[in-house]
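Re: folding output
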Amino acid sequence: MILTFLLLAAAQQSPGGVPNRTRVPVAVDLSGQQQPAGMATPIPLMIAEPVAMAIAAFDADHDGIVTRAEFDAGVRRSFEVSTKGQPAMGYIAFGDWSERWLGNRNALPSPFEVDGDGDNRITLPELQARFDLFFTRFDADKDGSLRRSELLTVRALPQPGARPEDGAKPRARKR
């Protein structure tokens, strides 16, 4: 066993007592950062916001596309299921709605964003108005329907060891 370790140690040393050094080719990426050549560029982080997951669930015919009609029906259905026939829901009931449809009571939109008139009650028209903004934001190609790819948010991954301000553009100094 000891002989095996000695043979392995000897095999790792280079001749002449010079330490074994491996040259690693280096490439420069588009941002000017040096990367070892051959290493794949990290894939950006793709996430689905809670509201995007709810919108994806509105796809009634399961074709992977949420039409405007499916969207409107889904918002209405989510409201009606949560209010059980009542014309409005309070903030606590909105938390229940958010838990069921967005996955978490604290997911956005918050009840404060949805309650347009500030009366501490959320009506269907208020929920529809807030969701209309989401539809407009997610419909990147403006074709009146939402594909799964439009519901994803792409975020760049931070580089290991990079400081947050490294990605920001330098501000002009006032003199």
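--- second protein (sequence, then structure) ---
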Amino acid sequence: MKVSRQAAILLLSALSAGLLLSGCSHSSDDPGDEGYKGPTLPARTATMDAWQEGPPKPRQHKPYPYDLSTHCGIKWAKFGGLWWVLDTVFPGVEQVKGEPAQDSQVLAGYMTLIGPDTADFDAAGMPTMQFVPAKDEPPGCA
């Protein structure tokens, strides 16, 4: 395919202008933003003598160290004094940098209260898992 010299110069000029404009964007910690720089939280490792469940009254949009039990599967979480149930998994951009922990009974990560009816769990090597308030307490393991 032949491209005229004028067309090539016009294309390169347009690309250069686009790069200059995008260089003015701000950095961001939100994966949906244009200036997103990648995972912002460090990977965690759970220790049984220091189990992390976050505070009784978490603040919105603040990630708290959280250890999610995987013994009976990843469906239930107790956070902020309430039981939550897994609602949605968002594959894509990771929020936690580092290697995933190798413990098969606990997933060490962070729980973030997004709103009164949404909490997100993030761990290294895992997609964001979104929880909603549970109507009932979880059943025991079968």
